[in-house]
Design brief:
The complex is a heterodimer of chains A (264) and B (165). Chain A has 264 residues and is of the alpha+beta class. Chain A contains twelve helices and twelve strands. Chain A has helices at 12-21, 34-39, 75-80, 82-87, 89-96, 101-106, 109-115, 122-128, 142-145, 212-220, 224-228, 245-263, and strands at residues 5-7, 26-28, 47-50, 60-63, 66-70, 132-135, 139-141, 160-166, 170-177, 184-193, 196-202, 209-210. In chain A, the strands form three sheets. Chain A has a five-stranded antiparallel β-sheet with strand order 4-5-8-6-7. A four-stranded antiparallel β-sheet of chain A has the order 9-10-11-12, sandwiched between helices. The longest helix of chain A has 19 residues, at 245-263. By secondary structure, chain B is of the alpha+beta class. Chain B folds into two domains: 7-86, Beta-grasp domain (Ubiquitin-like (UB roll), Roll); 91-164, Orthogonal Bundle (DNA polymerase, domain 1). Chain B has helices spanning 32-39, 96-103, 113-126, 132-138, 149-164; strands at residues 11-17, 20-26, 58-61, 64-67, 80-82. Chain B has a five-stranded mixed β-sheet with strand order 2-1-5-3-4, covered by helices on one side. The chains are: A alpha+beta (264), B alpha+beta (165).
Chain lengths: 264, 165
């Protein structure tokens, strides 16, 4: 790692002030992605702004027909949250298949969603549930938030504060894990909401995307068989030593079927 | 805002390590792993990949398992850290998990073993894993290059069974 300085503010306002003051400052939440990046010297922050001392960024709340998850809520807390388990079991399940327990004890939802790694899990739930990303400045609809590999609508100095998930009628998630890294090879999140059906693919392409053919099929007939025969085009999907684009395209149909089965 | 810091900048840090209160000074970029090994001489915690993939640096942070390589020491001000050196009882009596690893020969080279044992101690504490499949899933953050997995699972099964009695 290069050297850097360190600040630990206790409020969102102070954190934003620090992050806005220097374009080379970086926020650190769980550090499970940032620290490896710093060790590879991919990043040279002047200082880190540690978000772990900001109480208002923590915790899960149920208010009416939505669940709000604070940005600093750790994966293990999402996995164990009685509110999430009862209202959106697919989201609690998703947390149980992120990385391993060491990672889940440290990593945060805000960190994952702000980073938008193509192989991350949470972005598919955020887009699949039509969630709202809340920052210190504004509210961003999930459809506008994800902008491709490691790219989001967040502006420099803007801090992701919470994510609001509308509670769906049904939702399910299925993921094919790389057996060594446990990163997603292809995952599908399906949700039946009052605004319609959403099917979102993660891990297979450079970013999360909606699978509209499957959305139409499930709108007409919510059943695993409705999506099993729908082929995902392989153009534009990821191809690497772990699997070809064609393999990932095939996985999308299989995972979609499993996700609908999981949703019930 | 401060100028870019120099290598001499350190911050105060209070930690309880294996039951002992420590007042330290660390550079902000020091990982908990490097602090334990380089500054405190606790070399039982091993550096494998240094990127959070292998689990050989697993320690207990306020009772929860974490990869010490992916935690900046300054972030954990006031925390309680337990390493492999802190598991044994008074007089050096082996922790039941250490004894089970010995009994089941749950290692070959031993490099991943401190992390495996710390992780397994937390697994028992968490109380989520019961079956061999669940144990394997909940130990997935700890890789063993020698492939001692069947023996590791057997050792953990034994401790779970002892605790259930």
């Amino acid at each position: 790692m290069y050297d850097f300085d360190y600040h630990k503010p206790s409020s969102v306002a102070d954190a934003v002030k620090l992050l806005s003051a220097d374009p080379d400052a970086r926020a650190i939440s769980g550090g499970q992605t940032l620290l490896p990046a710093l060790k590879h010297r991919l990043n040279r922050p002047t200082y880190l702004v540690d978000l772990s001392g900001i109480a208002e960024l923590r915790g899960v709340k149920r208010e009416g027909d939505k669940i709000t998850v604070g940005a600093m809520t750790r994966h293990i807390e999402v996995q164990n949250s009685p509110e999430v388990k009862s209202a959106i079991p697919a989201l609690a399940y998703m947390a149980t298949v992120i990385g391993d327990i060491q990672v889940r004890n440290r990593g945060t939802m805000g960190g994952s969603v702000a980073n938008n790694d193509p192989a991350a899990d949470y972005p598919s739930a955020v887009l699949g549930l039509g969630a709202t990303v809340v920052t210190d400045k504004r509210r961003i609809a999930a459809d506008d938030y994800f902008q491709g590999m490691f790219t989001t609508a967040l502006e420099p100095g803007e801090l992701l504060v919470a994510i609001e998930f509308p509670i769906p009628e049904k939702a399910g998630y299925a993921k094919m894990r790389n057996p060594a890294s446990r990163y997603v090879m292809a995952g599908v999140f399906v949700a039946k909401t009052k605004d319609g059906v959403r099917v979102v693919v993660n891990g297979a392409g450079p970013g999360v995307f909606r699978q509209t053919d499957m959305e139409q099929a499930l709108s007409a007939n919510w059943s695993p068989d409705a999506v099993a025969g729908i082929k995902q085009a392989s153009e534009g999907l990821n191809s690497d030593i772990h699997g070809s684009a064609e393999y990932r395209a095939h996985l999308v149909s299989v995972m979609a079927k499993r996700a609908v089965t999981d949703a019930g | 805002m401060p100028d870019h810091p120099t290598g001499s900048d350190t911050l105060p840090l209070s930690l309880t390590v294996n039951g002992e209160a420590r007042q330290l000074r660390v550079a902000p970029w020091t990982t908990l792993l490097d602090l334990l090994r380089e500054d405190l001489g606790l070399i039982g915690t091993k550096k494998g990949c240094d990127h959070g993939q292998c689990g050989s640096c697993t320690v207990l942070l306020d009772g929860k398992r974490a990869n010490a390589c992916l935690v900046l020491a300054v972030v954990k001000e006031g925390s309680n850290v337990t390493t492999i050196e802190g598991l044994a009882g008074p007089g050096g009596a082996l922790h039941p998990m250490q004894a089970a690893f010995v009994e089941h020969d749950a290692f070959q080279c031993g490099y991943c073993t401190p992390g495996q044992i710390c992780s397994a101690v937390a697994l028992v504490e968490e109380g989520r894993a019961r079956t061999p499949d669940e144990i394997r899933e909940h130990m997935s953050g700890n890789i063993c290059r020698c492939g001692a997995y069947p023996n590791i699972v057997a050792a953990i099964e034994q401790v779970l069974a002892e605790n259930a009695r």
